[in-house]
Amino acid sequence: METFILFFVVLSNLIQFYFLINMFFYLFISFIGFFILKREKKYENQIYDKRFAILVPAHNERNVIKNLLDSMLYIDYPSELYDIYIICDNCTDNTEDVILRHPLKCNILVLKESTFSNKAKALNIATEKILSSKHYDAFCYFDADSLIHPNFLKAMSVKLNNGAIAIQGQQLPKNVRESLISLIVSSGQFITNYFFQKPKEFLGLSATLHGKGMCFRVDVVKKFKWDESCLTEDLEMQMKLISNDIHINWCENAVVYDEEPVCFSQYIKRSIRWTRGSLDTAKKHALNLFKGFLKTCDLRKFEAFIYCMGVYRLVILTFCGSVMYFTSNMFNIILELYHLIPYDNIFKFFILIFPFFLFPLSILIIGKIDFYIFVGYFMQPIVGFLRIPIFLLGIIRDRKNWGRTEHTSKYTIFDLVTNIANK
Q: Among 186, 210, 236, 257, which one has the highest count of C-beta atoms within 10 angstroms of its own C-beta?
């Protein structure tokens, strides 16, 4: 019995050690964000000459597709250097009719697949057709509920001309004030931008792909296809690129606006799909990323491994917490470090949580968010309680049913960007 207990204590301490590395690694990245909040990267080659193919997969998106097309009317980039492709993927509503009635000049690719279709499959089919007919320098990807900032292509062209080959634009929420859940999720997105994506770009680590606002150079597009069996094709692509030594840049000036869930049922449904896809991605890529790190000491692979394994954090914390509780009289790394803090428990608690107040406070002070979003950040525990059932449901979720989120937000580019000049 003692051997059995000792085994779990040793295992728990190993996991605690991994957890501490994880925590301090990301805290370090986050704290870098404080020093570069106002810093904007300067580029030498401010040239707008790249030719883009813009791809938008759409499945029954009549509620929001017009707002996306409206935002595309105001793209500030030479019109002869980009083409827009809307992929009507097995639509059973009038999405195609909405596009045809719109004044925007774009190409419509209608897919009528008798077999199972999803976003990744639609993108692969469209990409093959586009590459066989025209030449582009890069492909940009958006969702039907996205809104595009007028300067998006300019920013991407500059980034490409300065050596980037895979880029994630800055994702901002378009419907912050639409509901309580959209406020909570949106507040987290601002923190992600300034204390995760931006410092990772500064440190030379790869950005996290979001599925929209992405830009890949054409040779990357040709070499790497989207995984049609994964429910989080953007995360899977991210890990695939990093595994193959492709650095993913983050471009702060290339802004894409995204619709956040407006009700808890939307949030739960989306999170369950993300959990299933993240589990599959971790199973497929985590071990290879770790092996790649050990072989090359590439911190990009190490960070990708930790991020990939994040889907298991709930299991890891539950296991460690349980073992620490039942073996509190034995050695536990986290408890030992906690006892080293020279204050009583109340002060220790405030010392440990204080940094998390600094994140939203700092971007509130410099005017990146308003007080409404600042308050929303501290409502995160409301959705935190949903993580256990979401994780359990994600484990048993099937992969065949895509389970798209119904998009309904009426926010337009005019609500988010002022002084849009007429083309």
A: 257
